[in-house]
Design goal:
Two copies of one chain form a homodimer. The first copy, chain A, is α+β, with helices and mostly antiparallel strands and 469 residues long. Chain A has four domains: 4-91, Uridine Diphospho-n-acetylenolpyruvylglucosamine Reductase, domain 2; 98-216, Uridine Diphospho-n-acetylenolpyruvylglucosamine Reductase, domain 3 (2-Layer Sandwich); 220-341, Alpha-Beta Plaits (2-Layer Sandwich), CATH 3.30.70.2190; 348-419, Alpha-Beta Plaits (2-Layer Sandwich), CATH 3.30.70. Chain A is 36% helix and 20% strand. Chain A has 16 helices and 18 strands. A seven-stranded antiparallel beta sheet of chain A has the order 15-12-14-13-17-18-16, with helices on both faces. In chain A, strand 5 and strand 6 form a beta hairpin. In chain A, helix 1 runs antiparallel to helix 3 and helix 8 packs across helix 10 (292-308). The relative contact order of chain A is 0.11. At the A-B interface, strand 9, helix 7, helix 8 and helix 16 of A face strand 9, helix 7, helix 8 and helix 16 of B.
Chain lengths: 469, 469
């Protein structure tokens, strides 16, 4: 399709950077898990912030909706266009530079299209740590991480992406550039606009650059796997380890026995740390700014207390980086083992940590009543109160057929989450996938404030329409 | 004044809790430093959130402006009414209860009028730490701390008040109650409204309750005072200590020689750690989740490296809690020594840490040129990039007379702050005092977004008018 609007976009970014034919656009239109393919009027690939601003102004003038896109690794359809074909996709992938590392201020300035792993590497090359880490880090962009307030495996110690961001540059829905690229630990000069754009999933403007916090690299980390007989024990062990290790406890992941059996079945080459079977396992990581011996000593002293106090049944402490890596691989292969077993019904929920054991018991029971024999694959970042609570079919039922129960199962799980004061989206966001859930569960006072803010900042409603609200 | 509106308020909260005569209202109308006294139509003292909501609805109906008030310890006139006498003061001081401590989730639920020190005590009684700590902690309320995003002495390790808050209850400018009292570490379900109310200084609604994060109590802390010959060396020492101590470095405060001499002059009973005179001093605190020996060992190993590398000239490491306390007293008496010396011109600024040495040199030189002989009292939370950069008169000039230069000196200091990419309000906020400065220095794109949000959430403009915007 060649129209006047597309011509205007070409005059801004140059003809090669406006894709308007189907084969060229295709890679930008399908979501990461391959569940949905939308349509677009064009795909725009600006080279810098000024081009983004001019494109947005052109879209505003022509009332063309804009879907901002980073690495397209989101799990809730937040970065792909709908089926109408009215929107343009604005991809930040050409704006992928690391602009500056400031080792004394411990900050890094990056463009929004920078790949997470390249930011980690740039920090590492400066002898520092950018702690955000998640499965898609080789593909996802920091603009997407910020727009979805991504979580990952380092939240317990370093917080979500929100807590790692000091400053932003944003192109507003009018096509203005807001230079909020501050590199300050303290700044109380008005409303928290930075916080508002983080997690807004591109519905309030387009993040084009960011200043991020860096940390000293720990000298060493070590890992243990601890066997316990219940989620309640896992919660007690978490408290104990936090008291013993303080900020040195950098990860605390929960896995049920079913998760470990699934991994063992599909990936038999991975370590099987225990001969006996136990109900629950916790993967613990302790990092030290001093030495490997210090990390091991801290970890062992916590685990010894847990074994003596009867909290833990058995434990394996990694004695090398290779052993640590092996234990992490078990954790990281749960999702892959699930995928190998067939499709299942996924939930990304969070709860007050103190209510997790009751949540699991109650929700397991409700599901067993409604779908006798269904299998719960429950694991997650227990230290953050974040569970991936997934449901697979009963023995002998085809996975595809079981997906017909998705809505009923979502309702059972999310009703239970809300009853236990939890969140129906811990780290993945709302996107297009959970818009109806948000309407169902969110306090109307809160929804109305969100709508008022959306209308105030994006009065034409052109920024990522149909997402979140 | 008895009018229909005041009668309506009495019917909501009971007659004793609406103050309308001058002597009863007086304690609510003057700011903490005694620089300004406003007027009010009445002072309202609700007992609970429902009463707050009904009062706000009554104010909205009658178009009466509302000044929310906590402990009234703010430094920028944010919590006192203007001189018009049109507004009511709505004090949260009766809503001062600690509602619940959840030791497993490591959270505490409090009403907005709870005194900071009482929250610290409640955490401590549960064997946990609420880390927010600042000079006014015996009087200030958590609602005020949240509304101003207070800083204090624990920011380096635990962040600002923003980072310590998980959930809020807010009465909106329409008199609705938003129940956002979530106790979750992860929640990506829409816009960051919590973040927006934190630091909004009561201009978007009234915080009535909050869920706050608690931490394990460190087993021990220890302190050192290190002498150096320049701010640049103090920055290098900060990097070194962060690398050696990681998250165990819990405070890093800078003081110039002039500050120490001022304290020694006005408080001769306090410790004078060094016989010789040095240009700059850093007060370091290291906390350990293990033992006092561990804290001392970490601190000493960092300081030894600094002495060997020529970064530091001399150092005193506290060998007891009493010695630590003595060193902190020197730091905490700088403001008192200044007050004893007479009024001076204060600035609460922040900068990228890497630019602080250049900022100090440049600003000192500009002031010396404009006001030869004037004395800079520069100290602050260097680890957060936050300086209290105050200016006192030259020898022989009366302090009161020198205040006539306030505007010119503010301009020199704040122009320099902005030139070095800093903030004109690091931890105190804008209030009524810095509204003109904000207009002068803030990006118009940012100011316009702030105004749009204010108009969207408070269309009648009744919440704390004249503050921030």
């Amino acid at each position: 399709m060649t129209d006047e609007f597309v011509g205007r976009c070409r005059s801004i970014v140059g003809a090669p950077w406006v894709l308007a034919d189907a084969p060229a656009m295709a890679p930008y239109l399908t979501d990461w898990r391959g569940r949905f393919t939308g349509r677009a009027r064009a795909v725009l690939l600006p080279a810098d912030t000024q081009e983004v601003a001019q494109l947005v102004a052109a879209c505003a003038a022509a009332r063309v909706p804009i879907v901002p896109q980073g690495g397209r690794t989101g799990l809730v359809l937040g970065s792909v266009p709908d089926a109408s074909g009215e929107a343009v996709v604005l991809s930040l992938r050409r704006m992928n530079r690391i602009l500056e590392v400031d080792p004394t201020n411990r900050t890094i300035l990056v463009q929004a299209g920078a790949i997470l792993q390249e930011i980690q590497d740039a920090a590492s090359n400066a002898g520092l740590l950018f702690p955000l880490s998640l499965a898609a880090e080789g593909s996802c962009t920091i603009g997407g991480n910020l727009s979805t307030n991504a979580g990952g495996t380092a939240v317990l110690r370093y917080g979500n992406t929100r807590e790692l961001c000091l400053g932003l540059e944003v192109v507003t829905p009018r096509g203005e550039v807001w230079d909020g690229l501050r590199a300050l630990r303290k700044d109380n000069t008005g409303y928290a606009l930075r916080e508002l754009f983080v997690g807004a999933e591109g519905t309030l403007g387009i993040i084009t650059a960011a200043v991020l916090k860096l940390y000293p690299q720990p000298k060493a980390s070590t890992t243990a796997l601890v066997a316990m007989d219940s989620p309640a024990r896992a919660l007690s062990l978490l408290s104990l380890m936090q008291d013993v290790c303080g900020p040195s406890l950098t990860a605390y992941e929960l896995m049920s026995d079913f998760c470990l059996r699934l991994v063992a079945h599909h990936f038999p080459h991975l370590p099987r740390p225990f001969a006996a079977t136990h109900a629950q396992y916790a993967l613990l990581e302790v990092s030290s700014s001093e030495s490997e011996e210090h990390a091991i000593r801290l970890l062992e002293s916590g685990i010894e207390a847990a074994l003596e106090g009867g909290l833990a049944i058995d434990a394996v402490v990694a004695m090398s980086t290779a052993q640590s890596g092996g234990l992490w691989q078990v954790r990281e292969h749960i999702s892959l083992a699930q995928a190998a077993a067939g499709k299942n019904i996924k939930h990304d929920v969070s709860l007050p940590i103190s209510r997790i054991a009751d949540f699991i018991a109650t929700t397991d029971a409700r599901l067993a009543e409604a779908f006798p024999g269904c299998q719960v694959v429950c694991f997650g970042h227990l230290g953050d109160g974040n569970l991936h609570y997934n449901v697979a079919p009963m023995e002998g039922v085809a996975h595809e057929a079981f997906l017909a129960n998705q809505e009923a199962i979502n309702r059972i799980v999310h009703d239970s989450v809300v009853a236990f004061d939890g969140s129906i989206s811990a780290e993945h966001g709302i996107g297009a996938l959970k818009v109806d859930d948000l309407k169902r569960y969110k306090d109307p006072v809160e929804l109305n404030m969100m709508r008022a803010i959306k209308a105030a900042l994006d009065p034409l409603g052109i920024m990522n329409p149909g997402k979140i609200l």
